[in-house]
Amino acid sequence: MNPMEKLRTLQKKLYSLQYALAVMDFDAQTAAPSGSDEGRSEAMALLSDMKYQLLTDSALPELLQQAEAMELNVQQKAEVRELKRLYKETCCIPAEEYSQFTKLTAKAIGVWQKAREEDNFDLFAPYLEEIIAMRRKMAGYFDASKPAYDVWLDQYEPGLNMEQCDEFFAQLRQVISPLVAKIQALGAEPAPAYLDAEWPLEAQRELSLELAQLMQIDLDHCAIAESAHPFTTEFYKGDVRITTHYDQRDVTNNLFSIVHEGGHALYELHTADRLQYTCLASGASMGIHESQSRFYENYLARNLAFVEHLWPTLQRLFPVQLQGVEPESFHRAINRCEPGLIRIEADELTYSLHVMVRYEVEKQLMDGSLNVQELPAAWNKAMKDLLGVDVPSDKLGVLQDIHWAGGDFGYFPSYALGTAYAAQLFAKMKEEVPVESLLRKGDFAPINQWLEERIWKYGKEKLPGELLQDAFGEPFSSVYYTDYLKEKFSHLYRLN
Amino acid sequence: MNPMEKLRTLQKKLYSLQYALAVMDFDAQTAAPSGSDEGRSEAMALLSDMKYQLLTDSALPELLQQAEAMELNVQQKAEVRELKRLYKETCCIPAEEYSQFTKLTAKAIGVWQKAREEDNFDLFAPYLEEIIAMRRKMAGYFDASKPAYDVWLDQYEPGLNMEQCDEFFAQLRQVISPLVAKIQALGAEPAPAYLDAEWPLEAQRELSLELAQLMQIDLDHCAIAESAHPFTTEFYKGDVRITTHYDQRDVTNNLFSIVHEGGHALYELHTADRLQYTCLASGASMGIHESQSRFYENYLARNLAFVEHLWPTLQRLFPVQLQGVEPESFHRAINRCEPGLIRIEADELTYSLHVMVRYEVEKQLMDGSLNVQELPAAWNKAMKDLLGVDVPSDKLGVLQDIHWAGGDFGYFPSYALGTAYAAQLFAKMKEEVPVESLLRKGDFAPINQWLEERIWKYGKEKLPGELLQDAFGEPFSSVYYTDYLKEKFSHLYRLN
């Protein structure tokens, strides 16, 4: 076998271990009995260790060098690049510290759940302190020349740093804050009374399938399951799973979960066949992935044309609940702007403000200018500054997200960034594809095809920057996102 | 690490790979989208190969020898014994042939499904011929001094051979055939009309949970899922899964599936904690496992005392369907004897005759005295001889079971043997535990405890022969089974 063939064998082994770990995690969240954590953790730790052994094999650097000396095509070069990154990231952390960190975060997630339930930040604080200390130390292993937070931003979104984030969020704030202020000056707009109803689960389950079919998600290769929190996972491009959570009192929850996760799923279902079983066979980055889910959720499903197409289906499934309701009213209801406390319940306009709150405090926690004891107060102040809301409890404030307990610092910005990528994709697509008239007809094929050609099929072959540049025909700019928000919400609230 | 500690590390790695393979198989049968086989097969083949590499490690024989030279306790001795067996079984087959066999049977299962659907034995015949040829060759690798079929009987039930099976089945036939003849002489007894009804799925699902609770199956460690064919799988003793299949037109199908699979599950849920993560941490053999499932299905759930206890629950869940029906009528209906064509639909009395048909033709296929072309005729003749029925098509005859397509020869006898083990357990238990009065009260604790103490907790630590001898206080004898059948069916059909 030549070096490249040897690397392919390695990638297939990594694939199979990753497959197993993904199925075990999916099973844990959708089907496992409540008391089954212990044996699963043992098995997953050992399988992760097998992955670690493969990636830290002392023969790997030479093999990568030999492969680089060969004449490689674009895909092969990308495989070597990605394997080098994986090798470097895995090797640089001492095995003992990595295992210590895994155990710490596994424990911290349980503690965080309890702390949130009991509204007791002090319970979680010592774990958070230890996690931050370890994350700062680990960032040094990766790249001691950079600030720790830059290291983590780059982990989730290759190429991203604080300088870019600062500029990006400043631009967003400049547009979003005045818009929110103008809308709030109009006075509170309550949700329409018909939304507060019983939405039978059987009909909601049927709606899930109707939405998947409408989006042309191939259900022979994508199954829908139920879990406490919706997510998407891919075992390989022929087996993607999305989950949703049915709430009898809220039909929009499931509707937007399916569309959002469906966007993630379409991406994974359409990576090129040639990437299969390599380390390139999934989405390019967290931000790019989020751009796909947000594209379907915000730019398509919150569009009046989409609601109008879906209306006969909704009327058929919920004839009593939606009796006499017009699609315009529903469209308005799902686009209602109202600053609130919880990120995952935020409307399209205020969503990025929630991300900014996290960005600001994460940055300071990482550079040591904010300590954990001061965090709740800093959180509450940022919420007041950015969203104008008073946080009544840590449960509804700093304790609401799982990310930090899992050690994820620098992840949040990719949510806002992905939403902004999607705005630019939406603008560019509309230059070539009559999106709204297609939505009104329920014809997703040209929309999906456009994204497949520009984004999906490349998997991780292109780095995010290159991928976006090629898709846009120009560099990324947040102006598309801010212009979109300005236009949409000015129109909805007749601000001009 | 000393040799025994090294073997523990090996066992834990085997555990984690086995865990992953079991979850992937369970997921495939319960949750996976229809088109997801390809990538799963690739991943499973690679994980199986990792297991193969661990078990054929050239350092293993010496490690096992070193461990044997240590002072070992009973469990450690059993671990070494089991690892030696695994090493021997894995090493003796050339890797290439093993992989060829895996691919052949994977393909053959698809062909068998098609052949059964189309009632076309010729389609399946060439695959079956190749499987038999490979199985005969592989038996030679295991132990060239024994007839091939003895090798395979011993695989599923350590210690079993044709001599014992011949004697066992002769004893069964001597009792069962005259009983069946006497019952048939009484004339056909149709199933009661009320069974032919709509049995709502929601109520059937609730019945599953009620049955599991009644059997004291800990649902924190055992989940119930749905699949085309019911089965039980264990990831470890803290995570067991049973599946059932709901048939809107048949309530007994699900009822007995849950009780049968529940018996398998109780066994796995109660292996001793000290066996966890070792190769001893699951049931002792196919026959012993089947003895537990049959114990609950036949000896307990087909007992009038059980039906009487369950009656208020059944009446509550199916008030219309069971209106005016007495438990005695239902008990009679679920014990109706009627020779038929399909093994998995057979009643308690004729079940072992179906096994005998398979035993007779398997034996001859393995020693070469019957060739595949002659198989359907031999099958039909055996069905006529043993059950008195005419087989109208291969679909309802020789093509009904999946086992041979999967390469499983010598598996069927363990079904009958397990049922006979259970009869002896039932007789011995009744000497110490008032089984029927406990069933009438719905108190399974003393029953479960008796089995846990004698069977469940040992896992694979004892070999089947020793395990049964210790549990019975005497050697296994088929007389308990034949006496039970004689008494039960003489009483039901008033034959005396």
From TrEMBL, chains A, B:
The active site is at E261 (proton donor/acceptor). The lineage of its organism: Bacteria, Bacillati, Bacillota, Clostridia, Eubacteriales. Its cofactor is Zn(2+). This is Metal-dependent carboxypeptidase. GO terms for biological process: proteolysis. It is an enzyme of class 3 (hydrolase). Transmembrane segments: none annotated. Zn(2+) binds at H260, H264, E290. Binds 1 zinc ion per subunit. It comes from Candidatus Allofournierella pullistercoris.
